[in-house]
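Field log, afternoon session.

UNIT: design team B
ACTIVITY: writing a sequence onto a fixed backbone
BACKBONE:
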């Protein structure tokens, strides 16, 4: 029927977004890992780059400040990626380091106007 159309796959929503609170998104430099959409990031004070927030480090990234909006592989070199600095997000779609609990990450992100809640799948 449509000769020039081809199947590009199936849409699989990840349910990361969980409400209407305004989302502020910016392009930033990401470093030191292969991350999936929904990863909780911290900002390295010295370089201004973002990486997985881990509570036991002391480079500034121990403070969660953003949610990754897209998959990004920055294992071998820094990459630019979009992150969310505000908004409402589904707790089941977040990826965060085991040095945090769901409760602690929720409280820390709340201070940044990032609201975490459980939504239906």
């Amino acid at each position: 029927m449509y000769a020039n159309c081809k199947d590009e796959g199936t849409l699989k929503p990840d349910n990361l977004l969980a409400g209407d609170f305004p989302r502020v998104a910016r392009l930033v430099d990401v470093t030191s890992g292969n991350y999936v959409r929904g990863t909780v990031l911290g900002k390295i004070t010295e370089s201004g780059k973002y990486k997985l927030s881990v509570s036991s480090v002391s480079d500034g990234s121990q403070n969660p400040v953003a949610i990754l909006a897209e998959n990004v592989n920055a294992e071998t070199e820094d990459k630019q990626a979009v992150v969310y600095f505000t908004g409402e997000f589904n707790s089941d779609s977040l990826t965060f380091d085991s040095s945090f609990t769901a409760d602690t990450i929720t409280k820390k992100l709340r201070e940044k106007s990032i609201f975490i809640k459980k939504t239906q799948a």
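LOG NOTE: The chain is about 5% helix and 35% strand.
NEXT ACTIVITY: expression trials, pending approval
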